[in-house]
Amino acid sequence: MSNPFAELDSYSLGSDNSIPSEAIASLNTDGVVCLRNVFGPYWLATLERGIESALNGASTDLDIVKRDTDKGSFSFSSGAWAQVEEFRKVIFESHFADIGWSLLQSRRLTLFYDFLLIKQPFSSSAATPWHQDHSYYPLDGVDVINCWVALDDIPYESALRFQKGSHLEGQLYRAVDFENPNNAYRHAREHLPLIPGESEQGTILTTELKAGDMLAWKSYTVHSAPGNSLDQRRAAFSVNWLGDDVVFNGAASLETYRHESQVIGQPIACDKFPIVRE
Fold first, then answer.
1. Could you give the C-alpha distances from 2 to 68, 155, 179, 206, 207, in angstroms and in order?
2. pTM, rounded to two decimals
3. Of the N and C termini of the chain, which has fewer Cβ atoms inside 10 Å?
4. What angle do CA 265, 269, 271 make, to 5 degrees?
5. What DSSP designation does 214 have?
6. Burial level of 221, CB count in 10 A (0-12/13-18/19+)?
């Protein structure tokens, strides 16, 4: 299948895993960038062992959803790095944090949370609605990125889609419910506007991925993904990183994004959200 939208910018790491300056410029301009072949067989195998552990009960924040209209299920896990040794190993021992640090160009890098998403074959209704990650966070600041690693080859049919430059105005939209976008999300801030429909969004960017490729996007970038209608798994492991300007704002949110030690107007760094580079 050819790309039905515009192709987003892709770059390769340097021989020392450095980030090309052009990749940072694309991230800042478009709100998203693709980095090719970030993780090789060793780290991909490590993540697969982590998936097995997470799905077998190590992750305490795991949901597996099977809808009547689908043959396959989809599952997601948040903040499992403290429980799944393989996830912790990838986050703290690979070059993952260095990539996030370079992309954010921050003095300090804080680990926010990891996220595992698996769409099994023929989980067609497991679509990810148009949303902004930041809508769900009790955070002020714009130094927040999601670094999302494909664990399978992902063709255009099931690839993520991004509204080009949607982060630039700093407009925060109302959070949507992932289970049923027609229902109100329980922590939605009702005073915020709804995300514009796809026909109003301007240029939509996407790309197909190979296992080990990474997408990185700003937390204000509007994006979505279709369900998986193919006969192959579509899995990804991502980490959200925080930079220098991020502080807690006290907004209602899931426990994943909170800790009792947080103080309004202050950085969130603590045992749950550790500083990994400075």
1. 31, 9, 29, 11, 10
2. 0.95
3. N
4. 140
5. E
6. buried
Amino acid letter at 176?
Answer: V
Amino acid of residue 86:
E
Q: Mean pLDDT per segment of 10 residues, for the chain of length 278 residues?
A: 92 95 98 98 98 92 85 90 97 98 97 96 92 97 98 97 95 90 86 85 95 98 95 96 97 94 96 97
What tokens appear for 181 in the block? 């976008």
Q: How many CA atoms lie within 13 A of 188 on its CB side?
A: 20
- Residues 6 or more apart in contact with residue 98 via CB below 8 angstroms: 17, 277
| Strand segments (E) across 79-136 | 109-119, 128-131
pLDDT value at position 197?
78
Give the DSSP per-residue string, 128-164: EEEE-GGGG-SEESS-EEEEEEESS-B-GGG--EEET
Pick the CATH number of 6-270 from 2.60.40.10, 3.40.47.10, 2.60.120.620, 1.10.490.110: 2.60.120.620
Residues 170-220 pLDDT 10s: 999 999 988 777 788 889 899 999 998 776 788 999 999 999 999 999 999
Distance of CA 85 to the CA centre of its chain: 20
For 228, counting Cβ atoms within 10 Å of its Cβ (0-12 exposed, 13-18 middle, 19+ buried), the class is buried
Residue 90 dihedral angles phi and psi, to the nearest 5°: -65, -45
Q: What angle do CA 137, 143, 146 make, to 5 degrees?
A: 65
Q: How far is CA 185 from the centre of its chain?
A: 19
Measured CA to CA in angstroms, residue 136 lies from 248, 256, 264 at distances of 12, 10, 16
